[in-house]
Specification:
The complex is a heterodimer of chains A (about 300) and B (about 325). Chain A has about 300 residues and is an all-alpha fold. Chain A contains twelve helices and two strands, in the order H-H-H-E-E-H-H-H-H-H-H-H-H-H. The mean pLDDT of chain A is about 85. With about 325 residues, chain B is mainly α. Chain B has two domains: about 70 residues, no CATH class; about 230 residues, MetI-like fold (Orthogonal Bundle), CATH 1.10.3720. The N terminus of chain B is likely disordered. The chains are: A mainly alpha (about 300), B mainly alpha (about 325). The interface between A and B is large, with 91 and 88 residues.
Chain lengths: ~300, ~325
């Protein structure tokens, strides 16, 4: 080729081909990525569009009426809130302390490897098997019966591995030099953790924990047999509307409610089903964006 | 952190007193931390124990006076090889999970056929090609994909994908393997993307630089350097996706069409192991053969998930040891 004679650095055919191929791959992987992301956006837009006739303040604040052909979703919404709250109270202390153990106390030995393996496996147990466990252990063995407490315990066990993992990550981001300095002042391990490690990581830990538990609350399978119920009478106003379920009561939950109205009940207006799904996705987006915003805020505030 | 350090305060102060009490309880607290540290092991064992315990009567035989009136014992050969699942038959209940297993496998395999190329492609793009703002936006959106509850995915399959598939394929009903496979693929893509992105990021930059220095362009570098170096992590990503597919309950319950049959094409409805438990446990009487058999399916699922996660974990650990050397 004459080109090569004139310019020794000109691309050869082979190189040109390789470059074409690279361009093609880059474009196609880009296309694939957007192909994954666009359906999500499209689905959200579609859900909101379809649920528009139903979406209003009353839809949130009113209880389901006449087999969900009128009213709103207050009873299941507040049920999901209490499910998250109680699960959080049960799972957070255990999970956070377990994370502290794994990051601060555990040596590199077979026991630690065993624990890490257990965490991975606990995270991989199918959600319906968690439901079976909750039924066998909490409902029957511990005699709790089907109630909010049993369902919360089940969800708590399910969220434990993700809480442990996110706590471990938050703790690992505290520089080792902080601990070493504290030990050199004569502090014990627990004093160091209590006064240096936890204060420097607690906001990161809590963000992770709340995000994970809120996500788990969207799961239906674990609460199916441990306490969720199809419909319950909830007061329309007053104190009882805000705290409608005791720990011993069965409760309504948003995820189970959506399952029931979209597969079991007839004559539920289309917009109500879409509305329930839209509210669930709205909550997911809200919790996620708050945690992302908080993460950015924390990063900007970091002193090291 | 000086205001909370243990040596603050002079003479007597309430704070000092509290600090002293806290220090006094240190051994107890450290003990508690250790106990919580082992909680994961305790719970994994507890899950297996309780699910197995409830399923045991099916294998050892039910006592007399059970719902069907005589001593019953589950035929394990029939359980694993029969495609017939007729639990509530008055004459002769049959408990065969072959069709359910085939249902689970067909949906999972189809979802992987869709999700693995998409997930790997997206991981390569996000970790190697994308930069700056678009990269951050894509990561957030993929994370969002993972956060959508499974019942909402099921709902989407039911009301969005179902009519679309009816229009496109001409089948009378759009609830089948294809529907569930697509929904499950979208659900397992985020985990595949995030695990394979981790695997790609774990490859040291010196590998990339060496590749580029030898004259490879980005794609040649990804294909010839990163893929071989990260292959274990990528394999683990696929395995975790499979684990997700086998364990998924609500979405497949709502999208598969829920009929017990051996599928012959991807337009056939099926039923999965998980969906069977979810749909029938509510009606099964405690102490009945049906009830115990559903727990036995739970044991099967637990063992499947355990093997898959163990393998994925060993594969990942393997790559980490190699990487350090």
């Amino acid at each position: 080729m004459s080109n090569e004679l004139n310019n020794p650095f000109a691309a050869t055919d082979q190189e040109r081909q390789a470059r074409e191929k690279e361009k093609f791959i880059k474009l196609s992987t880009q296309l694939i990525t957007w192909l994954l992301v666009i359906p999500v956006v499209a689905i959200i837009v579609f859900l909101v569009y379809k649920s528009w006739p139903a979406l209003s303040v009353e839809f949130i604040t009113e209880n389901p009426k006449v087999r969900m052909t009128a009213g709103g979703i207050w009873a299941p919404l507040i049920g999901t809130f209490f499910l998250v709250l109680v699960s959080l109270i049960i799972a957070a202390p255990i999970g956070i302390l377990a994370g502290v153990y794994l990051n601060e106390f555990a040596r590199d030995n077979w026991l630690t490897r065993f624990i890490n393996l257990a965490v991975v496996n606990l995270a991989g147990v199918p959600s319906i098997v968690h439901g079976l466990f909750g039924l066998g252990a909490f409902v029957y063995f511990l005699g709790m019966d089907r109630c909010l407490l049993a369902a919360s315990c089940t969800v708590a066990v399910m969220t434990l591995p993700v809480i442990i993992t996110s706590t471990k990550e938050a703790l690992a981001s505290v520089p080792m030099a902080f601990r070493v300095a504290c030990w050199n002042m004569g502090a014990t391990k627990w004093q160091t953790i209590r006064t240096i490690v936890l204060p420097n990581s607690i906001s990161g830990i809590l963000t992770g924990v709340i995000l994970q538990v809120a996500r788990a609350a969207g799961e239906t399978a674990p609460i199916l047999f441990t306490g969720a119920m199809i419909s319950s009478r909830v007061a329309d106003s007053g104190w009882d509307a805000w705290v409608p379920y005791g720990l011993e009561d069965r409760f309504m939950a948003l995820s189970y409610h959506l399952y029931i109205i979209s597969t079991q009940w007839q004559n539920v207006p289309e917009s109500f089903k879409f509305g329930t799904a839209a509210v669930m996705i709205g909550l997911v987006i809200a919790v996620n964006s708050i945690s992302i915003g908080f993460r950015i805020y924390l990063r900007s505030r970091k002193k090291w | 952190m000086s205001e909370s350090s243990p040596t603050t305060g002079q003479g007597f102060s309430l704070r000092r007193g509290i600090e002293k009490v806290i220090d006094f309880t240190e051994p107890a607290v450290v003990g508690l931390i250790h106990l919580c540290g082992w909680s994961a092991i305790i719970f994994v064992m507890a899950i297996f124990f309780f699910v197995f315990k409830e399923s045991l009567p099916a294998i050892t035989g039910l006592e007399e006076g059970a719902v069907h009136g005589e001593v019953e014992q589950l035929d394990l050969v029939e359980f694993t090889t029969s495609p017939k699942w007729i639990p509530e038959s008055a004459k002769k209940p049959t408990f065969g999970i072959l069709a359910l297993m085939v249902g689970t496998l067909s949906v999972t395999i189809l979802s992987m056929v869709i999700a693995v190329p998409l997930g790997l492609g997206a991981a390569v793009y996000v970790s190697e090609f994308a930069k700056g703002k678009p990269r951050e936006i894509l990561k957030v959106l993929i994370e969002l994909l993972a956060a959508i509850p499974s019942v909402v995915w099921g709902f989407i399959g039911l009301v969005v994908l179902n009519p679309m598939l009816v229009d496109m394929t001409g089948e009378p009903v759009g609830l089948n393997i294809l529907n569930a496979g697509i929904v499950l693929a979208l659900m397992s893509v985020p985990i595949i993307v995030s695990v394979s992105e981790d695997a790609l990021r774990a490859v040291p930059d010196s590998f990339r630089e060496a590749g580029i220095a030898l004259g490879a362009n980005r794609w040649e570098m990804v294909y010839k350097v990163l893929f071989p170096a990260a292959k274990n992590g990528l394999l683990a990503a696929v395995l975790l996706g499979i684990g997700r597919g086998i364990g998924e309950t609500m979405a497949v319950l709502m999208c598969t069409g829920h009929s017990v049959m051996m599928p012959t094409s991807i337009f056939d409805p099926v039923r999965t192991l998980t969906a069977t438990i979810a749909a029938e446990l509510g009606e099964a009487v405690r102490g009945d053969m049906h009830y115990h058999t559903l727990f036995l399916i739970g044991v099967v699922l637990f063992v499947f998930a355990f093997i898959i996660n163990l393998t994925a974990d060993l594969i990942v650990k393997g790559i980490k040891v190699q990487g350090n050397e």
